[in-house]
Amino acid sequence: MDLGIRGKNALVCGASKGLGRGCAEALAAEGVNLTLVARNAEQLNATCDAIRAKYGVTVNAVAADITTPEGRQQALAACGEPDILVTNAGGPPPGDFRDWGREQWIAAIDANMLTPIELIKATVDGMMARGFGRIVNITSSAVKAPIDILGLSNGARSGLTGFVAGIARKTVAKNVTINNLLPGPFDTDRLAATMVGAAKASGKSLEEVMDARRRQNPAQRFGTPAEFGAACAFLCSAHAGYMTGQNVLLDGGAYPGTF
C-alpha cells in the first residue's frame, strides 16, 4: 500500500534507537524526509547515516534533549514546518511511589506530558493551515493497564492521554489527526533496563526474567521496533485521516480486556 506521504517532512523524537528509530525507518521507507532528535550525538549520527544510505531521503540530525525548551527550539528550527510529528521521550525510572518527591514527579510530567504538548502547540496550527498533519505520541500500555512500579509513567502519560482526547477533536476537520501508540513489551533497551530491577528483586538472572516475561505474553515473544514503526507509519498516512484521538495498543495480546 502506498501511504500517500512521499515528500512530506517529519520530526521524530527519541529516534536514534528503539521504537523511535523504528518509526523513523518506516517513514523513510515511504519517502518521508526526516529530522531526527536524540541526546546521544554519536548514536544519532550513525542512525541518520544508515537511514540516508538505505532509503535515499533527506535526514537532519539534532543532538539535543527534547524535554528542554532549548532542545525543542533546536529541533523545530531544523525541521521547519513538519507535516508529521512523532513525540517520544524516555520513560521515568521504575520504583516505589513512597520514594518519589516533587522533583521526580515534575521531571516525569515535563518529559512525558508537557514536552509532547509543547511540540503539538508549536506545530499544529501550521498543519491545520496547510490542510494536512499527523501527530503520533509514543506513550505506554500502562495507560490502559497501569504497572505498579511505573507510577511516574502511569501518571504523566495518562495526563497526556487526557489532553489529546480533547484537542484531537478540534483539529481533525482540518485533516490533522492526533493519536497515541501504546507499546507493550518490545525488544528495546528500555525493556531490558526495566527487567534489570525485576531480576535483582527476584534473585534470578536477567536472561531468566526476560524469558519468563516473553512466555507470559500471548504472542510468546516481544515486539520489534519495525512492527511498531509500521503501525506508526500507517497512522501518519493519507489513509488515516478519519482516525483521531485514539489509543492504539500494540502488546501482543497482553491486555486481557474487551475494551
Task: Report what the structure shows.
The chain has 259 residues and is α/β, with parallel strands linked by helices. It contains eight helices and seven strands, in the order βαβαβαβαβαβαααβ. Strands 3-2-1-4-5-6-7 form a seven-stranded parallel sheet, with helices on both faces. α1 (18-29) packs across α8 (225-235).
By DSSP (H or I, 4+ residues per run), the number of helices equals 8
**pLDDT < 50 runs, ≥5 residues:** none
Describe the oligomeric state of these chains in a short phrase.
Answer: single chain
Order of strands in the sheet with most strands: 3-2-1-4-5-6-7
Q: How many E strands? A: 7
Sequence of secondary-structure elements: EHEHEHEHEHEHHHE
**Terminal Cα separation, in Å?**
29 Å
Protein name: SDR family oxidoreductase
InterPro entries: NAD(P)-bd_dom_sf (IPR036291), SDR (IPR050259), SDR_fam (IPR002347)
Family: Belongs to the short-chain dehydrogenases/reductases (SDR) family.
